[in-house]
Amino acid sequence: MELFQKTCIPCQGGVKPFSPEQAQAMKKQVHPDWDLKDDSTHLTRNFRFKNFKDAMALAIKIGDIAEAENHHPDLHISWGRLGIEITTHKIKGLVESDFIFAAKVDNAFDEFSVHGGTKSTEKV
Question: 100 lies in a domain?
Fold first, then answer.
């Protein structure tokens, strides 16, 4: 089963976050533009667009995924840019669900471009 096909499992606390080595191993299953930050406790990616409308459209799509999965990232939107930061706040680190969510974002981004969205990615 592909990572994006799995379901995020809400963290109830009491779970150990991934070590930096575990997070690095999981990162290999998502798009290479994802970065590990803050001692591998956050997963981030930045997207660039040709306009504000497309950045908002993807943000709304990610919001729909977040509600369906009960897993809510931090989104940073500006003209032509969308940044996403994923972590499990309850344990101050990353677990499999964070990478599942990242894979779902990757899938949404790919679908977005197929349906005419103007996009590019950049590492910032």
Answer: yes
